[in-house]
Specification:
The structure holds 3 protein chains of 3 kinds.
Chain A lengths: L1 E11 L4 E10 L2 E6 L8 E4 L4 E4 L1 E6 L12 H10 L2 E6 L10 H14 L3 E2 L2 E3 L12 H6 L4 E3 L8 H13 L4 E4 L10 E2 L2 H6 L3 E2 L2 H17 L3 E4 L4 H12 L4 E6 H5 L21 H12 L5 E3 L24 H14 L4 H8 L1 H7 L14 E11 L18 E11 L2 E5 L3
Parallel strand pairs in A: 1-4, 1-5, 6-7, 7-8, 9-10, 10-11, 11-14, 12-13, 14-15, 15-16
Antiparallel strand pairs in A: 1-2, 2-3, 5-17, 17-18, 18-19
Helix pairs in contact in A: 1-2, 6-7, 7-9, 11-12
Chain B lengths: L9 H19 L5 E5 L2 H13 L3 E4 L8 H4 L18 E9 L3 H13 L4 E10 L10 E6 L5 E6 L5 E6 L8
Helix pairs in contact in B: 1-2
Chain C lengths: L4 H4 L19 H19 L12 E6 L4 H13 L3 E6 L2 H5 L4 H9 L5 E6 L4 H9 L4 E7 L5 H14 L7 E5 L6 H12 L4 E5 L15 E3 L2 H5 L4 E4 L5 H4 L6 H8 L3 H4 L7 E3 L12 H4 L6 H33 L1
Parallel strand pairs in C: 1-2, 1-3, 3-4, 5-6, 5-8, 6-7, 8-9
Helix pairs in contact in C: 2-7, 2-14, 3-14, 7-8, 7-14
Classes of the chains: A alpha/beta, B alpha/beta, C alpha/beta.
Chain lengths: ~425, ~180, ~325
């Protein structure tokens, strides 16, 4: 490999860099970055108008294997992730069986390695079978590669069990990922507001999130565990974490891209593609999530990619499965977010690379000379159609199927290897 | 544009129709006829006929029996049919203002047979124009007329009754 | 045509009714036409011959995923009076949960070449879903979906008001009881506000009032006596006894104390106020027997109006559906 990417807009949050540059990559490493490079025998990629940035790290993704390969496989979904610019993924432990054994963790990592698209760092189940009754073998799972522990979308309602989880994790300084939602108050299907009233769907009130956040904050204060909150959805939730951070608690948080781009209004007409947990909320909540990302209350953007087979979404709304396959539209949505808000590309790429990696203590993956090339090249002006042939994910739950989209990842490199290249 | 043909004055047409119906009854030796008019023009004429013949009066609204409701939609304000008598084995004089396609009469016959089985039905219309689509003819008719494709006749009323030729704009379709 | 999304699926390109899923978003003129047409059918219902041939040769399938003999019977009678062929399918949901999905059920039904489905389902949006799946060939009439909508029931209440009261814009209307779980109440609110009613009141305890209800253009009251003051129309809703099991209410007797309609409370309303209830009545829980059977009660009239409304909606939707088919064939 010997390529010269010319005149790209290089956006690197590690160096706070946003400038037009040439980048030379050879033998899997970044050889040189400069305003104008002259490398005689390199293959030249003319990248004028394109964006070059570190590849992304996804703190929440559902790869469906083992157990649900009709929805997606590790191979199909890591490929889809690479096509969206990702190099590192943390798959949810919500598999069948759950990721609560070294056997499952090894299977996930082996399959990912065979596929060769992304580095996969599993999140292991916090309780056995995600059943919220018995602790999982955290120490062994950690040694088998689990970088964090989570009970996925299942609320541990028994405070004794939850306290033991925190105490045990604190013993070994393990990281806990929390999807903060109160089980009993989350039985609904969309944000609890006027639209839920009109559509006659059970609402999920904001306190389903804030009650759970306050409970977990007290648990972590009591035990000293470092805690990461996933998929925030409400303005009130963001405000609680802002105050907790101001008090100096060792917490971090993420938001999924769908919540930054959409509101409950998408559910109009019972559009089951937008049936997600936590629910899409009010426009004021969306604005608060954007503000939280801007002021650093929220550290990372995740995909929360959840592929499904077509039938899972073809039923009356409440009977449909929750979740959205988002990798195929991730880049167009991200670029529209950059265009429609005050969030800069530097801030957005930081929330997708530097910040998620640093909260996990992972290697830096900035565009530094001598380092392995972990990057992606984006054409923000390329217009293309999402169809069943152009989509990479196996998920049939594509909310923008057959739409014309703007912006596409042209090239993804992971550890110096090409993991995605757009053809056409 | 061709000048519309001159129509005889309406009162004399009505008088002629009454005359023809009386003869019809006499000729066929019809006993105790019922006079039933189709909304709205036919119902006005039926009132005059019933009075002259001293016969019971009924009214039909055939909106629910039309065969074109899937094209035209339903007229929301339907005047109820009122047949305040048993029509089984009775002789009926069915009255309408203008006979053209014959579809209105077909619908009226269908509706009448939902009420019972009359002994006979005679059709009286004030006027018959060209454009028949069904094998239906009037037994009594005061005026037969040829009109062009964009002309139709309309009876205005009830007081006074006035038959007029309407020139329609080209786009309107025949009903 | 510029229509709210809730109405687009229900209307043809020329604005005719082709499915009847919810009142939400339908234009006032269309609601008035439904009422006028139903009024004509009320007269037909009083005639010796109650049957008209409008839907002769058409097949109507009553597709009931949730038991409701009363509602099904009125739809069945309405279809028969329009001369349609009627097929009743009671699909209990346990059978569909045994593997056959709703979509598979629909695919099987599609093979029958029916012209209209009357759908009752326990999930909100089910009729919507079916209309999206079977369009463009079959007209869908919503006979109740979850807590979302029950538009024919709401329109029969409008017909009752239309026949017994002056124009809607002068009326004060109170809807009392379990608004939260009521599919009828939502459509009643949409219908009343669309028809011009300025003062619609929802009365109940906070546990039974839906979130942000005021944004529907109504006023909410917890106090029945206050809410009934000076109203022209009182619509009582049915209270399901399972509400007590899921902690919405402490007991039926406490509910009756606070929200039961008694003669004494009825005096707060205008002296010529009318009282309505979708039935079946829980006497002594929602309403005192003397009020239910009293002069101001129109509860029994409502049953006859229900058939007329269903005849009107079925014939209008069938007409719209046929027109849509012709438009589509012409475009091909």
């Amino acid at each position: 490999m010997n390529i010269l990417i010319r005149q790209a807009r290089v956006v690197d949050p590690y160096q706070q860099l946003d400038a037009i540059m040439d980048v030379h990559i050879a033998d899997g490493n970044i050889q040189a970055i400069g305003a104008e490079l002259n490398i005689p025998d390199a293959q030249v990629i003319e990248a004028k108008g394109q964006i070059l940035c570190p590849n992304f790290t996804d703190l929440l993704s559902y790869l469906r294997q083992p157990g649900n390969s009709q929805k997606g496989t590790i191979a199909s979904e890591t490929r889809a992730a690479a096509s969206a610019g990702f190099g590192t993924l943390l798959p949810s432990p919500d598999t069948q069986p759950a990721s609560d054994s070294t056997a499952v963790l090894e299977l996930v990592q082996d399959r990912a390695e065979q596929a060769g698209y992304c580095q996969v760092l599993p999140i292991a189940a916090l309780t056995q079978g995600l059943q919220s009754t018995h602790l999982s073998n955290m120490l062994g799972l950690n040694k088998a590669g689990a970088v964090a522990f989570s009970n996925a979308g299942y609320d541990i309602t028994d405070n004794t069990v939850l306290l033991r989880c925190y105490e045990y994790a604190a013993t070994y300084k393990l990281k806990i990922f929390v999807q903060a939602r109160d089980a009993a108050l989350s039985h609904g299907h969309m944000h609890d507001g006027i639209l839920a009233t009109q559509l006659g769907l059970n609402g999920i009130p904001v306190i389903a999130e804030t009650l759970a956040i306050s409970r977990h904050l007290q648990m972590m204060q009591h035990t000293g565990v470092s805690c990461h909150f996933q998929q925030l959805s409400s303005a009130a939730g963001v405000e609680m974490l802002r105050q907790a951070k101001a008090q100096g608690l060792a917490i971090s948080a993420d938001v999924d891209l769908a919540h930054l781009c959409n509101t409950e209004q998408q559910v109009q007409g019972y559009n089951s593609q937008y049936h997600v947990q936590p629910p899409l909320r009010h426009e004021s909540d969306r604005q608060a999530l954007i503000a939280g990302l801007a002021d650093g209350t929220i550290d990372a953007i995740v995909s929360a990619h959840q592929p499904h087979e077509a039938a899972a979404k073809q039923a009356p709304f409440a009977d449909t499965a929750t979740g959205m396959a988002i990798y195929d539209i991730f880049m167009p949505l991200l670029l529209s977010l950059a265009a429609d808000t005050n969030l800069s590309l530097l801030q957005l790429t930081a929330a997708l690379s530097k910040q998620p990696r640093s909260l996990l203590g992972l290697d830096e993956n900035g565009l530094t000379v001598g380092a392995a090339a972990n990057l992606c090249l984006i054409d923000p002006n390329l217009s293309w159609q999402l169809t069943s042939t152009s989509q990479q994910s196996r998920g049939a739950n594509q909310c923008l199927q057959n739409s014309t989209l703007m912006g596409r990842v042209m090239l993804t490199l992971q550890h110096g290897k090409v993991t995605w290249q757009a053809h056409d | 544009m061709a000048q519309p043909p001159q129509l005889p004055d309406t009162p004399s047409l009505v008088a002629d129709l009454v005359q023809q119906v009386s003869q019809l009854i006499k000729h066929h030796q019809i006993q105790d006829p019922l006079v039933i008019g189709i909304h709205t023009g036919g119902a006005w004429l039926a009132e005059t006929l019933a009075k002259t013949l001293n016969a019971p009066l009924g009214k039909l609204d055939i909106s629910f029996y039309r065969d074109d409701f899937t094209q035209q939609g339903l007229n929301p304000k339907v005047n109820p049919s009122s047949l305040p008598f048993d029509i089984n084995n009775r002789h009926i004089i069915l009255v309408d203002d203008v006979l053209m396609t014959g579809r209105t009469i077909r619908a009226a016959l269908n509706e009448l047979f939902d009420y019972g089985r009359p002994a006979s039905i005679k059709l009286a219309t004030l006027c018959a124009i060209n454009g028949r689509q069904l094998p239906i003819q009037a037994d009594a008719c005061a005026l037969e007329l040829q009109v062009t494709a964009n002309q139709y006749l309309q009876l205005e009323g009830p007081e006074p009754l006035q038959l007029t030729i309407i020139e329609r704009t080209i786009d309107e379709s025949a009903s | 045509m510029n229509l709210p999304p809730s109405a687009q699926l229900q209307l043809t390109e020329t604005g005719e009714l082709r499915h009847f899923l919810s009142i939400d978003g339908l234009p006032k003129t269309l609601l008035e036409r439904i009422l006028d047409t139903a009024n004509s059918f009320v007269v037909v219902g009083n005639q010796e011959v109650k049957k008209v041939p409008l839907l002769r040769g058409k097949t109507v399938v009553n597709l009931f995923f949730e038991n409701s003999t009363r509602t099904r019977s009125t739809f069945e009678l309405a279809a028969q009076r329009l001369s349609a062929d009627v097929l009743n399918l009671d699909i209990n949901t346990s059978a569909t949960s045994k593997g056959e999905s709703l979509l598979d059920t629909l695919r099987n039904l599609r093979a029958m070449h029916s012209d209209m489905f009357v759908v009752r389902h326990s999930q909100s949006g089910a009729a919507h879903f079916i209309a999206q799946q079977v369009t463009p060939n079959v007209a869908i009439i919503n006979a109740g979906d979850g807590r979302h909508a029950h538009p024919t029931q709401a329109m029969l209440d409008m017909l009752t008001i239309y026949r017994h009261k002056a124009s809607f814009d002068q009326l004060k209307v109170a809807i009392v009881g379990d608004i939260l779980h009521s599919r009828v109440a939502r459509d009643q609110v949409h219908a009343l506000t669309t028809l011009g009613c300025q003062d619609v009141r929802l009365i109940g305890p906070n546990t039974l009032l839906p979130t942000a209800a005021e944004e529907l253009g109504v006023t909410t009251y917890n106090d029945l006596d206050k809410g009934l003051e000076d109203v022209d129309v009182i619509i009582m809703l049915r209270l399901q006894t399972e509400r007590m099991d899921s902690a919405f209410l402490p007991s039926a007797s406490e509910y009756y104390q606070a929200y039961g309609l008694t003669r004494q409370r009825l005096c707060k309303a205008k002296s010529d106020a009318i009282v309505m209830h979708p039935g079946p009545i829980n006497r002594g829980i929602e309403i005192e027997s003397e009020v239910a059977d009293g002069e101001q009660s129109l509860i029994l009239n409502q049953v006859g109006y229900g058939i007329a409304i269903r005849m009107a909606v079925m014939s209008m939707a069938m007409s719209g559906q046929m027109q849509q088919r012709q438009i589509m064939e012409a475009n091909q």
